[in-house]
Design a protein that fits this description.
With about 230 residues, the protein is of the alpha+beta class. It has one domain: Nuclear Transport Factor 2, Chain: A. A 4-stranded antiparallel beta sheet has the order 1-2-3-4. β2 and β3 form a beta hairpin. α5 packs antiparallel against α6. The chain starts with 6 loop residues before the first helix and ends with a strand.
Length: about 230
């Protein structure tokens, strides 16, 4: 049996095909293999905050005598923080390393000084190795070993630093070399293996002046300063 052709049915079919095509072009065709939408990692926010704050992280336990990024300093800038005008080496160092700041260097040096003298008294070689050059560490280690051989112990109470001052600074090639004078107060006594005091006094406060030289190679990525020489002041 034959059937008559219905023009309305044809028109509706064409309209349906056009609508389906438009929807696919706008929304896209799903195949079942689409990647899920990516969420922003929490680390992205942290990295941005660190970048905005200019934060840095050190991966070791060496004190990096803190410094912040500053504009290129002038000779007047160095003088204005209380350093005498006869230390042009500070300006040279600051111009070679824009992260260097004399004020924060001295603050970090004070922290390093206390850590070193207390570690030396207690025989903490781990702390000393991170803060001293190899030569200076070997000298300190020799004294510690001698005390251990004799069964001696040191009792020390660090009271504080009375003063710290940069007395010389220079740039030797890529190496920044800064000498600092420290005036400190502490009590100290040495006991033998029987616990008897054989040197010093656990009560009397001693006033000591030390002159230490710090060094850092600006050509390397290592931001840490290390003590390369020590001497007693007058």
């Amino acid at each position: 049996m034959g059937s008559e052709f219905d023009p309305l049915t044809l028109i509706l079919l064409i309209v349906a095909v056009v609508v389906i095509f438009k929807l696919r072009s706008i929304l896209g065709e799903r195949t079942g293999h689409e990647q899920p939408p990516q969420e922003k990692s929490a680390f992205d926010k942290v990295k941005k905050e660190q970048a905005d704050a200019g934060s840095t992280v050190s991966g070791d336990n060496v004190i990096p005598l803190p410094g912040q990024t500053h504009a290129m300093p002038t000779r007047e800038d160095v003088v204005n923080i209380g350093i005498s005008d006869d230390l042009p080496g500070l300006t040279e160092i600051a111009q070679a390393d824009r992260s260097f700041d004399a004020g924060t260097f001295v603050s970090g040096g004070r922290v390093a000084y206390e850590m070193i003298v207390t570690a030396f008294a207690s025989g903490n070689r781990g702390v000393l190795q991170g803060l001293l050059s190899q030569t200076v560490f070997e000298n300190f280690d020799s004294v510690i070993s001698g005390r251990e051989t004799r069964g001696e112990t040191v009792e020390m109470e660090f009271i504080g630093l009375d003063q710290s001052e940069i007395v010389s600074a220079k740039l030797e090639g890529s190496k920044a070399v800064i000498t600092v004078e420290f005036d400190s107060s502490f009590t100290q006594s040495i006991k033998n293996e029987d616990g008897q005091v054989i040197d010093g006094d656990p009560i009397t406060v001693r006033k000591v002046r030390d002159i230490w030289t710090f060094e850092r190679d600006l050509a390397t990525q290592d931001p840490n300063w290390r003590v390369v020489a020590t001497e007693s002041g007058s």
